[in-house]
Design goal:
heterodimer; A: alpha+beta; B: mainly alpha; 5 helices; about 0% strand
Chain lengths: ~650, ~130
């Protein structure tokens, strides 16, 4: 019964999305008021039926309905309840349904919020409808989560143990709220092209959605990096893995978009460019989703293993991206682009920011996709790993961070450099002091460390100056300062961990000791620590500093019999400023295990900074919503 | 008997961890091996370096690197040997060759083109600002 409800809901959702697309686009004409009402209702109906379909799949997973192939393949009776719930999006079919759910949520939000003119909203809803049609057809015909299996098995195959983790359970929804959020700014950009309403109103209408998407993507990437850190057991936080890069590209372009859209809103500058960035941010989100989902990353040949899905994905990408770019090429030249500003101005700063962010995106794009193209066309296989990005991506970001504190201090249209930079002198002082202290204290990588911490000091101090001095009056300026400070904090974390991490590999039996950083590790005992769906061996390791015992850490190793897979459960002791990180390796001889120990100075700052960036975004979003409510209230004074 | 156990426990607590299997006793050479490992890809894994892979072939290559380092070979010689065996795929940083020019110079091309367009935009905007 569950499968039938799900299937029926998806089918009805497809019908409604067709109505939404047709009515929404028809509503772009002035006289089509009825169409606009139909589109609004269809958007709500679409959400209802997709929630029903998603709920049906959740229910099937929770009650372990193994008559549904997707549940039998990806769940098992012994799996803890929380992972039965979150495991729904741990596989291809379920995660596509989650994607669709988020799309429906944003679509309903556009219909409810009614930002921008009626025609603009309607056209945006129509574009969202087209996206929903494409995804529903894809799900129903190639990735149906409600297919049956006859006879149903007694138990399921279980979920990849690496995914049985709370961090990874909330990572995909967060990431999708980011990816799919850019569909809203994409839809508004397309709507502006369709309706020819090229003034700043579309950018203003799309702004909260851009911000929401950016916040979620920032959090999603931070969570993903944190998960990789504690779950994979290598003490690393970013591997320049294609899957990670796939989420970084929309973030970089989305960040460029936030800045460029700000200029468009305030002064009408860069209208064409902001339209193009909106299209690019969502295109990269689509590419990211499909890079990860199509299996093309594992191997070019995996793409061909399921030719139906592969071909469908390619056609969809070409239609969505090509269609939008075609519309852009057709309509955009008619744009009036006569903005006027002097070379020293906020506009120029934002333009520089955009050039650098787009270059950074290009390094990631080429580093991720070039090896795939090269192999597909010539058969030559190359690897593009961290050393490539260290020499291409990092310099671009260094330049960006050096210029970052100056941008927000420049006035729109016309500004004085000396006047803007003078109040930043204390920040420059902080930067120099930070660099000096670090070069005295550091016993290795002195120059790089001094540069990195000087840069971090510069960015953070300048943001703090902005926070505590004159510019804190508007929520927007506050948000900017917080987000920029977060970036500086992340930089400190990355620099500290990368430059000064210590690691030791030791073979420990009960009673044996090893040294790492300031700590002495003593293996106290090894014990079994089985769970409901795994067997585990756990080490009790005493951590002491000098003669004082400060903690007992219990790194473990799990074996999941159903899935026939091993996972490493790291043990991390954090002081908030540094991490002691232990991972249990293989058994060698009897009763002795390899223990990998890492001392990661400043590692927590990486994720702390990410959270602060997201917080900055949230402040900005909140300010926007409050300002709008004030505008909507009767007798209100117009905001700003 | 009790004495024996007590003695064993005493020695056990005083014993430093045995040298981890497969590491070199000279810390400088071991550090070189670790750094080299990070620049090499585990050819059967998904994006992992030799340094961080659990695959048997990665363990073999870790051993091979140490044998060759002890035999006095340079990092370049070891890389050459591995490239001969597995191709450029084994290098985490792709070599600069005609078929990687696009990869290596693409970002710089984007920067230069983007910078040029931005400069043009600024010049025009400035002309308009001064004109009004």
């Amino acid at each position: 019964m569950t499968a039938e409800i799900g299937q029926l809901s998806l089918t009805l959702a497809l019908a409604l999305s067709l109505v939404l697309a047709a009515a929404g686009l028809a509503g772009a004409r002035v006289a089509a008021g009825i169409s606009r009402q139909i589109a609004s209702s269809a958007a709500i109906g679409l959400l209802v039926f997709i929630v029903l379909a998603f709920g049906a799949l959740e229910y099937a997973a929770i009650v372990s309905d193994f008559s549904i192939l997707n549940v039998a393949d990806n769940s098992s009776l012994a799996k803890p309840m929380i992972y039965k719930i979150t495991g729904v999006w741990g596989n291809h079919e379920g995660s596509m349904l989650l994607w669709l759910l988020v799309l429906a949520l944003y679509t309903a939000a556009i219909a409810f919020a009614k930002r921008g003119s009626e025609r603009l909203t309607s056209a945006a809803l129509g574009v969202q409808g087209l996206l929903a049609v494409a995804f529903l057809v894809f799900i129903l015909f190639t990735s149906n989560p409600f297919l049956r299996i006859d006879p149903p098995p007694f138990d399921g195959n279980g979920l990849n143990p690496l995914l049985q983790d709370l961090g990874l359970a909330i990572h995909p929804p967060t990431l999708y709220i980011g990816y799919v959020g850019f569909s809203a700014s994409f839809a508004y950009a397309a709507a502006a092209l369709i309706t020819r309403e090229f003034d700043a109103s579309w950018a203003r209408a799309a702004r909260p959605f851009m911000l929401a998407a950016w916040i979620a993507l920032t959090l999603g990437i931070t969570l993903g990096s944190w998960w990789a850190y504690y779950e994979l057991g290598w003490g690393g936080f970013w591997f320049w893995d294609p899957v990670e890069n796939a989420s970084l590209m929309p973030w970089l372009v989305g960040t460029a978009l936030l800045h460029s859209a700000l200029a468009t809103e305030r002064t009408g500058a860069f209208r064409t460019w902001t339209l193009l960035l909106s299209i690019a941010a969502f295109s990269l989100s689509l590419i990211g989703t499909f890079l990860v989902r199509s299996g093309v990353l594992t191997s070019v040949h995996a793409f061909a293993n399921d030719p139906e899905r592969g071909a469908f994905i390619l056609i969809m990408l070409i239609l969505a991206i090509g269609g939008a770019l075609g519309l852009f090429a057709w309509r955009a030249p008619s744009l009036e682009t006569g903005s006027a500003f002097e070379p020293v101005s906020r506009e120029t700063a934002i333009l520089t920011n955009n050039v650098l962010l787009v270059t950074a995106t290009a390094t990631v794009f080429l580093g991720t996709l070039y090896p795939l193209f090269l192999e597909a066309f010539t058969g030559t296989r190359i690897s593009v790993g961290p050393p490539f990005f260290a020499v291409t991506f990092v310099p671009v970001f260094v330049a960006l961070l050096m210029l970052l504190p100056i941008g927000p201090r420049l006035a729109w249209r016309k500004s004085e450099m000396a006047e803007a930079v003078r109040p930043l002198m204390p920040a420059l002082g902080v930067a120099l002091v930070a660099a000096a202290i670090v070069s005295v204290l550091a016993d290795s990588h002195v120059l790089v460390a001094a540069g990195a911490f000087g840069l971090a000091g510069w960015v953070i101090a300048a943001s703090l100056l902005d926070l505590f001095r004159r510019r804190v009056k508007t929520a927007a300026a506050f948000a900017v300062a917080v987000a920029h400070a977060g970036l500086g904090i992340t930089l400190m974390g990355i620099a500290g961990t990368t430059l000064w991490r210590a690691e030791t590999l030791s073979l420990l039996g009960p009673g044996e000791t090893a040294q790492i950083g300031p700590y002495t590790l003593t293996m106290v005992r090894l014990e079994r620590a089985d769970g409901s769906n795994y067997a585990a061996i756990r080490a009790n390791i005493r951590v002491s500093e000098g003669n004082r015992t400060i903690a007992t850490l219990t790194p473990a190793k799990r074996i999941y019999p159903t899935e026939q897979q091993e996972t490493v459960e790291t043990a991390i002791r954090t002081t908030g400023v540094s991490d002691l990180y232990l991972a249990l390796g293989d058994e060698r001889g009897t009763g002795r295990y390899i223990v990998r120990a890492y001392y990661n100075p400043l590692a927590p700052f990486i994720w702390f900074g990410g959270a602060i960036m997201a917080l900055g975004g949230l402040t900005g979003l909140w300010g926007r919503i409050r300002a709008r409510n004030a505008q909507l209230a009767p007798n209100a004074v117009p905001a700003e | 008997m009790k004495f024996v156990i007590a003695a064993l426990l005493f020695f056990a607590t005083a014993v430093q961890a045995a040298q981890a299997p497969g590491t070199l006793s000279d810390p400088a050479l071991e550090a070189r091996a670790r750094a080299l490992q990070k620049e090499l890809r585990c050819v059967v894994c998904q994006g992992e370096s030799i340094d961080e892979s659990n695959a048997p072939i990665a363990a073999d290559i870790r051993r091979l690197i140490r044998e060759r380092i002890q035999a006095g070979e340079s990092n370049e010689q070891i890389k050459q040997y591995l490239v001969g065996r597995y191709g450029d795929f084994v290098l985490m940083k792709p070599p600069l060759e005609p078929n990687t020019w696009f990869l290596w110079f693409g970002p710089a091309a984007v920067l230069v083109t983007g910078g040029a367009i931005a400069a043009m935009v600024v010049v025009r905007a400035n002309r308009r600002a001064k004109g009004t």
